[in-house]
Amino acid sequence: MTVSEKRGRPGYDREGILQVAVGVFNEHGYDATSVGVLAERLGLSKSAIYHHFGSKSELLEVALDRALGALESARDKALAGEGSAAEQLEAVLRGAVQVLVAELPYVTLLLRVRGNTDVERAAVTRRRAFDRSMRALVEAARDEGSLRDGVDAGLAERLLFGMINSIAEWYRPEQGGSADVIADHVVSLATAGLFRG
Amino acid sequence: MTVSEKRGRPGYDREGILQVAVGVFNEHGYDATSVGVLAERLGLSKSAIYHHFGSKSELLEVALDRALGALESARDKALAGEGSAAEQLEAVLRGAVQVLVAELPYVTLLLRVRGNTDVERAAVTRRRAFDRSMRALVEAARDEGSLRDGVDAGLAERLLFGMINSIAEWYRPEQGGSADVIADHVVSLATAGLFRG
User: Fold this and answer.
1) What GO MF annotations does this protein's record show (chains A, B) (predicted)?
2) Do B67 and B49 share a structural domain?
């Protein structure tokens, strides 16, 4: 936690406020959390929060942008590679697991967004664009002949990312479990399956 | 919906009340739903609901038992088969997808349970016993030599059921999409992976 001691009282910078807010949003729900509740949890006045964030909605926007930006960067990095679509897909799957583990609270918040406000709707739209680019990548892997016969690209994309997103349900950073080990398992399960060929 | 017309008013039997209640629990959350809200949604008096279910908690218990009972039956049927552990695992994965699609609202409710009440805690305990039996089955498949080298049974079990559970996030019965087609994809993705060998 980004906490610094100032004149004997804990102080939070912008990053520290964001981190605590995302934790409270995940615990109690965004709608059910007021800026007053956040202020109480942080031991700050509401105006101290408003010094850093114009509104509760801005906190949400910054948090969702962090999750989406990290996923998009992982994708863009993988797509910039020279390899086949299959190799790029493998790289995105690995990158998405690493983002999920590294930015767990932010991705958890993103996965729970239901599109009730403008900020949430914008995040859902951006997430869907990411999903469409992943589907296009699975299709490209199919078209280059990398996929087994009969694979439905849309269904496979949903199932693969369903598997990755489900990691947020059980992964707890404090219990260790390296992102690389999980990413290796996801990639090998996704590409080669559980059973010996 | 199990609705019958009685003297010009819609009537609900036990099954119909349960179905509507589960829909409202999934939409607004179990905690946030009162028997008064259910009565209003059903167009019934609270005492008409209490004629069929002793409490809101009993509605939840019956709903969760339906999801858990269906999953356990699918497992027990698969484990009663003569085949290898790998074949039994394949049958359970197929059966779990079919249960999820056939009992979607009930499984959705089960997946959201967080263990805040005795009924919820009992359901979480029963779900964990199911998960343990699945892990034991993955281990048995490993021990008979069916799995690729290096597969972690616990991690594989979590990822496979994460993939299956994620179907509840996007599957909409009204848009069609056969349970058998989805189950085939889950089984082939899980066992043989996405890529050509």
Assistant:
1) DNA-binding transcription factor activity; transcription cis-regulatory region binding
2) no
